[in-house]
Amino acid sequence: MALFPASLETTLQTKLLAPLTPTDPALGWSGLAWDFLTLYGLTVAGILVVLVTVGTFFEVMNARHPERRIQKTRINKRKWQELAHAPGSIAIIAFCFASGLFAQAQGWTLVSPLALSWWSGPLMLAISVVLYDAWFYWIHRLLHWKPLYRFHALHHKSVAPTVWTNHHESLTEGLLNQAFYLLLPFILPIPWQMLVLQKLYDQASGMLGHAGFEHFASPAGRTPFPFASTVFHDQHHGHFKYNYGHTFSWWDRLMGTLHPRYDATLESFEPAQMQAAAGQGESKGAKAD
Fold first, then answer.
1. What is the pTM of this model?
2. Can you give the C-alpha Rg of the chain in angstroms?
3. By the 8 A CB rule, do 245 and 136 touch?
4. Where do transmembrane segments lie in this chain (predicted)?
């Protein structure tokens, strides 16, 4: 299944995507190093594009909709401190992701990737997303264990997270979380296109989860549906011992770590509830006059 026109696909394969094909053995170690560094650079560039695009989007949205702030009494003034940790975090993310993808391209993995098709792409992507959510939940729980919490403490200095908090983490925490992308291609025959798509989603959703403002509340984020939301992760930062998951809430529901007010809090940010609250406020204001 081609994602691009044939002429563009050929250009991509021969130039931009050369690191995703086996390196010519005649080039030796220098060829391998060049291809890996090229892939690493492309990964860093992709992460930076997501960082700037998503970060700018939420800065604008948050400024326009202050009523959607989740923690009304807390304002995070640590934005520049959070951004100062971004280079190290991005370096770790890019290393793990590029290493896994490069190993797959060189044929070093235990399984070969499936050819991209109408069924293999969605199936492998779905499996990978579910696996990463489980990985994230249990690594996150492990990092809250007292002997390891020192590696996670930096991230929790942001009690009221911002869109930039996603990369505010220690190098050890970053390595533990992102090792998933290094290991996955060794055991799952996921097409590289789907792995890239998941990583882009992971980056964007990680920033969404830390945005501090709930812009997209819907019934899909609460019982009986399994999806998480910005409120979901914001409550983790605000209350510490709840909501450890990433994309889904099912691990927290199963393990008893879901915040007891999660569903109700998310519902309060849904459009109908926001409009009702605004109407009540206007009504009270009119009576006061």
1. 0.89
2. 21
3. yes
4. 37-62, 83-104, 116-138
